[in-house]
Structures are given as C-alpha cells and as structure tokens.
Amino acid sequence: MKIAVASGKGGTGKTFVATNLFNVLSGRGEKVTLVDCDAEAPDDLLFFEAGKRDEFEVTHQVPVISKDACTWCGRCSSWCNYNAIFYVPTAKVIEVIENLCHGCGACSFACNSGAITEKPVVLGTVTSFTTSAGSPLIESRMRVNEMSPVRVIKAAIKEAGNEGTVILDAPPGTSCPFVQTVDTADYVVLVTEPTPFGLSDLRQSVETLKTMNKKCAVIINRADIGDNGVKDYIEEEKIPLLAEINYDPVIARCYSEGRLITSEDDKIAGLFASLADKIITEHGTGSNKW
Ligand code: SF4
Ligand code: SF4
Fold it and tell me: For 51-108, what is each residue's pLDDT tens digit?
C-alpha cells in the first residue's frame, strides 16, 4: 500500500506526520519504506541517524543542435511545448535553453534533417539510506537550478518498490510534483491546519484529488487554534477526519530539534499507531472515492 502524506501548503506538519508514521510502523516490525518526495527541499533524513546504501543520478536527454546540418525549417521550435528552443532564422540563431527543456524528445522526432542529437543532463539524485528506525528511507533531491523535480520524484518512488507499506512524503502545493507523487498512491492523507489559509489550500488539494479519483482523509494539526472552517468543509465533502492533533510546545520543540516524538512519548506513539490502523481501515472501506 502506498500512502501519500500531503498538504496544500508548507508548514502544516506533513513531514511531522510522515516521519512519525514511518517510525511507528518500523517500530512495530512492519515492512515500511519512507520516500521523501519533496525533492526541492528534502528534510526527512534530519530525523534519523542513517547510513547511505546507494545513490544514483537521474538524467534526461537534452537536444544538441548542429547549425551545419540545420535547414532552418523551424519544426523543432514549433513542436516544443516548453519554448525551450530559441529560434531566429533570419539571424541564423537556434539555441536550446536547457533549463526549460523537459527532455520529451519531440524536437528530435520533428527534425527531418538529422540536425539534432541528444546528451544526458543530470536532474538530481535518488539516495537510499538505512535509518535508525531500521527501515529504508529514499530521498529525492533535485539539482540546484533545475526547473522541475518530477522525474527525480518518479525515480525515487520507483526505487521504493511495491513491498509492504510505502509512505510518500509529498511536496507542498498542488502542482506537478504533488500530482506525480499522489498519482502512485493508494490513499492520500492531507495534513492541514484550521485557518483560512489551511482551508483554502485544502480545498485546492481536494479538488485536484477529485479529478484523479483518489481516496483521501484529513488530519488537522494544531487543531485547537483557528476556526471551524476546515471541519465544516470536510463534513460537507464527506471526507474522513483521521485525527486532530492539538498544539503542544513539547511536540514543537522535539520537532524543531530534529527528534521524533513517537520515540519519546508513548501516548503520542499510540496515537500514531491507531492512525496507521485507521488509514488501512479507511482505505479498505472504499469511502470518498470520487
Ligand atoms: S526535448 Fe522536448 S522540451 Fe526539450 S527542447 Fe526538445 S521539444 Fe523542447
Ligand atoms: S527541425 Fe532540424 S532542421 Fe529544422 S530548424 Fe530544427 S534543427 Fe533545424
């Protein structure tokens, strides 16, 4: 089972939930893998002592254009959906803007003159660790200056395989990196906070998940602050409420110091254990799949 832990906005406690859920399942001796899909700012590793097992680079193929062979037909430029080919035939200028290139190969296919070859460009890395929790953590990390982490995220999720429970710590927002992550998930846990910002971003996440026909449930973090907007909304949408976690300075301190509260507080470890069971139960019920 793949569980994506996501949130519309950063700072709601998504990583807090993902890492502690992983820690509890690992502690129960279950086969579980944590994948840090927030490739632009991965930080799950901060919470574990971990030994590196393996690392590989994720690349894509970027076109290289030979001006000598080019007949200045312009097909490559017009086929490129990402405006990654700067083409001014009157000035005999044709250049690939590598940072905009998505490596789709359309320009190579379009060129009938054999003027385009391709070269690999590194987008980021996928690194596997064995954690102090005893189970593997796979980290996606995008190379600085790249435009999109999607391929790196995809490679990290693939590396995790399909055995046992795979927890995907999703990137914030609802754009391509989020979609790529939740697309492979059987169930999505949305972590939110009871504020107008939290509600606004939760709505966007839910609307995106509806279009993907994905099951989801909600955890309200810092549930004792803010207002009732989130609760009213999820009731209206018939989205299961998995848990409410009140603001607690002890949890906040523990998290800010890079420690896992489920390793230190039995009561909270129990809460996360029942959370894991609830996720499996809710997933089995088939509720709220749009
Ligand atoms: S590979 Fe795709 S994105 Fe890159 S320049 Fe060619 S058409 Fe554009
Ligand atoms: S499709 Fe080929 S020949 Fe035409 S402009 Fe592009 S590189 Fe030149």
Answer: 988 999 999 999 999 999 999 999 999 999 999 999 999 999 999 999 899 999 999 9
Please give the CATH topology (third level) of the domain spanning 59-122: Alpha-Beta Plaits (3.30.70)
Residue 133 pLDDT exceeds 80 = no
Length reported for the chain = 290
Best residue for ligand 1 mutational test, from 78, 80, 94, 109 (most atoms within 8 Å of Cβ): 80
How many C-alpha atoms does 280 have within 13 Å on its Cβ side?
A: 11
Domain boundaries, the chain: 2-49+132-285, 59-122
pTM assigned to the model? 0.89
Report which of 185, 184, 195, 257 is spatially closest to residue 217, judged by C-alpha positions: 185
The residue whose C-alpha atom lies closest to atom 6 belonging to ligand 2 is 76
CATH of domain 2-49+132-285: 3.40.50.300
Pocket test for ligand 1, best of 96, 101, 121, 150 (most atoms within 8 A of CB): 101
